[in-house]
Amino acid sequence: SGHLVTLTCHSVQGSPTPSYTWTRLDQDKTKKPVLGYTDPKIGSLYITNISQFEFGEYQCSASNDVGAETCTVELNHELGDGAIAGAVIGALLGALLIILIVLYMTHSMKKQKYKDTKETEMQAKPKSSTTVAYEGVPTMESSHQASVTSGGVPMATHSHVYADPDGEEAEA
């Protein structure tokens, strides 16, 4: 389809040189004019930009003063290996594209579901806070031990006593 097709009918034995005419035969073998350019001297029929409507049976008549002869040619649309390979490659690429789209959509849905699950867990889980309450913060006059509670669990702390340069006790 869409290409130039040349049909040639030639007689090397015709004397005097024959004149050539081309006709198209429809399904009933009725002669129809051809769509294209004919050269009656060399017997060629040129069909430019051929479409499916030009496929069919063509008849060439060679005639001179001595007589006339005819021959018929069937013009078919056959796919070449290149067209078949192109169709197969196109189909495979189309299938690959569909598979990639499905994988992307599946991944996106799983990612969104995971994100929604994490948000639900975060909303359902109470925020934990650690409260430290000091009971009886030690002073210079008090004991060097203090009781600390963390989340209701008592903890003991020890302070270190040392002497400063003036000889007085200090806590660290």
Description:
With 172 residues, this protein is α+β, with helices and mostly antiparallel strands. Among the domains are: 5-75, Immunoglobulins (Immunoglobulin-like), CATH 2.60.40.10; 132-164, no CATH class. Helices cover 26% and strands 34% of the residues. The protein has 1 helix and 12 strands, in the order E-E-E-E-E-E-E-H-E-E-E-E-E. A hairpin with a 4-residue loop joins strand 6 and strand 7. The mean pLDDT is 75. Residues 1-76 form the Ig-like domain. Residues 141-150 have a biased composition (Polar residues). It is a single-pass type I membrane protein. One of its GO terms (cellular component) is basolateral plasma membrane. It holds the Pfam family Ig_3.
Task: Provide tags for this entry.
single chain, 172 residues, alpha+beta, 4-stranded antiparallel β-sheet, 12 strands, 26% helix, repeat, VSIG1
Secondary structure topology:
Blueprint: E1 5-8, E2 19-25, E3 31-32, E4 37-39, E5 44-47, E6 56-63, E7 68-75, H1 81-124, E8 132-135, E9 145-150, E10 153-158, E11 161-163, E12 169-171
Antiparallel strand pairs: 1-5, 2-3, 2-6, 4-5, 6-7, 8-9, 9-10, 11-12
Pfam families: Ig_3
Main location: membrane
InterPro entries: Ig-like_dom, Ig-like_dom_sf, Ig-like_fold, Ig_sub2, VSIG1
